[in-house]
Design brief:
The structure holds two protein chains of two kinds. By secondary structure, chain A is an alpha/beta fold. Helices cover about 35% and strands about 25% of the residues of chain A. Chain A starts with a strand and ends in a 7-residue tail after the last helix. Chain B has one domain. Chain B has nine helices and no strands. The chains are: A alpha/beta, B mainly alpha.
């Protein structure tokens, strides 16, 4: 279980989060929606202890991350894996080295074993043909796949964190990434790997999540897809209007 | 930026500077990164140092030959050029060139990694960014800047020799004889301690400003500019302080 308790954060005079309260279990599939600058990515960074809140507590399985030792924090971070917008791949490393990064950093695997694992993950993600390409030679969709591959190679996370997973991608590639995300988090709770995806692309969010949170300084909405499409909040209605225009989702599900 | 943020920033800078030393002796050792950084900072800066040093030596020798000639002291050109280059101008000029090339490069590279979340990825994967990114750059700077300075000093002295002998028509043997005379422990120590400390300061300032980059392309421009400007100021101020301390340490009166 992860929990945000009255979390406040501001950058200079710009209040990003103003008393955020939020709980989620590791097997939930959550989409955090909101416009730019609403603190969506900040939530993921707070959860991983990459940013400290000004006030409030963030608990992972009941333990406040502010009180964790560096080793406890490292172990807590191992429960998650994050895929940042644009992939955040290491420019100087090729695809194979990017995927193998975590294995080389803190495992005792031989080069043969690393090679075998990288090829296995690359095959699963459909990027085995690009192992020796540099990130600059990859398309946006391929970069996201490599970033997901690197996250998977790091271990067996209980929850994947996606930062704008489909932003900047064409609709077909975005759909492929959504399928891949669903594939990785398939199954029923509590066995499956949960996810938190922060995005402003509501049409993609409904393909991968079961719970939806709309954020503006604080949580404005928290519910499932039926509650989302029937919301009475005018601003949220406007935000999700794309859903009705595109008719890209079957609401009867 | 309010006072609290400034104090926090200063504290972060001190911590990075401290950890860059203490964590250099802890496993894992990033040997590949250290060699890469040495290649970038050392071999990559060689040509610029060569050019800067050659023309500084020639200009200094030209100017001093003219001034000393008016006083009837032209024969001391080698001595004054040697002392100026080895103790003062060489270390400072090469450190400034190093800042422009390597310091700016470090700040922009780390700033870009910070903005692109690659630094976050390191932390998420349990990799210490100070060990992986800062330590190799600091080691590279404190090793390569003294090496570049020694090479640059030698090139400057050759530039000075060329002007003294072929333009100012002085004796080459006398020029080198005077250089040999000043090559004592005090001169050599002063000339090599300075670049060692400048290298440490430039790399720490550049790493800190790079890792504290915020705010997209404008933030990257700001952090790169800050790294260069602060490094230049710190080099010049530290040079003055070190000169005073070293003169005192060697018992030389002013």
């Amino acid at each position: 279980m992860i929990e945000f308790q009255d979390v406040k954060l501001a950058y200079s005079d710009n209040v990003v989060l103003d008393g955020l309260n939020f709980r989620a279990s590791f097997h939930e599939k959550v989409a955090i929606l909101g416009g730019s600058g609403m603190g969506k990515t900040t939530i993921l960074k707070l959860l991983l202890g990459l940013t400290a809140p000004d006030e409030g507590r963030i608990l992972i399985e009941g333990q406040d991350i502010a009180e964790m030792t560096p080793e406890e924090l490292r172990i807590a971070r191992m429960k998650f894996s994050i895929v940042f917008q644009e992939g955040a791949l290491f420019d100087s490393l090729n695809v194979k080295e990017n995927i193998a990064f975590a294995l080389r950093e803190y495992s005792d695997y031989s080069e043969d074993e690393i090679d075998r694992r990288v090829r296995e993950i690359a095959g699963r993600l459909g990027i085995e043909h690009a192992l020796y390409l540099k990130p600059e030679e990859l398309s946006g969709g391929m970069q996201r796949r490599v970033a997901i591959g690197r996250s998977l190679a790091a271990g067996n996370p209980m929850m994947m964190l996606y930062d704008e997973p489909t932003t900047g991608l064409d609709p077909l590639t975005a759909a492929n990434i959504c399928n891949l995300i669903n594939e990785l988090s398939r199954g029923d709770p509590p066995q499956r790997m949960g996810l938190i995806a922060v995005t402003h692309k509501v049409t993609d969010a409904v393909k991968i999540a079961e719970r939806f949170i709309y954020l503006k300084d604080n949580i404005v909405f928290d519910g499932n897809i039926k509650e989302l499409v029937n919301t009475s909040n005018a601003e949220l209605k406007d935000f999700i209007s794309e859903l009705f225009i595109r008719e890209s989702y079957n609401f009867s599900h | 930026m309010d006072l609290k943020a400034k104090v926090a920033g200063l504290q972060d800078f001190y911590l990075i500077s401290l950890y860059s030393i203490t964590r250099a002796f802890r496993r894992p050792y990033y040997t590949k990164e250290i060699i890469e950084q040495m290649d970038y900072a050392g071999a990559g800066s060689f040509l610029i140092v060569l050019l800067v040093s050659l023309f500084i030596g020639m200009a200094l020798s030209l100017q001093l030959s003219a001034e000393l000639s008016a006083l009837g002291l032209k024969m001391y050109t080698g001595r004054v050029v040697g002392l100026s280059i080895i103790k003062e101008i060489g270390p400072v000029a090469i450190a400034l060139s190093f800042t422009g090339r390597v310091g700016a490069g470090i700040a922009s590279e780390l700033g870009s990694m910070q903005l692109g979340h690659q630094v976050d990825i390191l932390r998420v994967h349990g990799v210490d960014p100070v060990k992986k990114l800062v330590v190799p750059r600091v080691i590279s700077a404190v090793v390569m800047l003294p090496v570049l300075t020694i090479i640059g000093d030698a090139v400057s002295l050759f530039g000075g020799y060329y002007i003294a002998v072929f333009i100012s028509h002085q004796s080459g043997a006398f020029y080198w004889g005077q250089i040999r005379e000043i090559m004592g422990f005090e001169t050599m120590t002063t000339g090599t301690i300075k670049p060692f400390i400048f290298g440490y300061l430039i790399s720490c300032i550049s790493c800190y400003t790079g890792l504290s980059t915020r705010g997209g392309a404008i933030g990257l421009r700001r952090s790169t500019t800050t790294a260069v400007v602060f490094s230049i100021i710190i080099i010049i101020v530290t040079d003055f302080v070190l000169t005073r301390v070293l003169l005192y340490a060697f018992g030389m009166s002013v």
